[in-house]
Amino acid sequence: MSKVKISTTMGDIAIELDDANAPIGTENFVHYVMDGFFNGTIFHRIIPNFMVQGGGMLPGMEEKSSGPAIGNEADNGLKNVRGTLAYARTGDPHSATTQFFVNLKDNDFLNHSGKNPQGWGYAVFGKVTEGMDIIDEMAKVETTTRMGHQDVPREDILITKTVLIED
What we know:
By secondary structure, the chain is mainly β.
């Protein structure tokens, strides 16, 4: 299991990536961690009692250029339960790149139910092992609409550094 420490302006979060069940998502995330891609990005979408999303926007809601999309692994058996990380995507099930979210509660409706546009779901690739209290605090911040995006924290919550942790 790969482990990553995500340092934010609100505190540190430790995550464990599921190499065995989500090899594509894990490899993708580790690649961006090693490249320092997430450093300086913000948590740009927070919906209380649902999820906290980050990994692709810079302050000012400028989208950071990423690499190619990855295949959707939502049929890997992992569920969108509290504390898990999953890839955000567009309406195209195979459009995930760098943006991820942490589930604030069990979100069964996001799980894979079939290989069709309605059923693909959102691919879980890891879980928070330390710092879920930080994620819960993020869920309490005041949000606004900015640059056409809703649920944006009024005050930026930055990812200052991501580090791969060796066991």
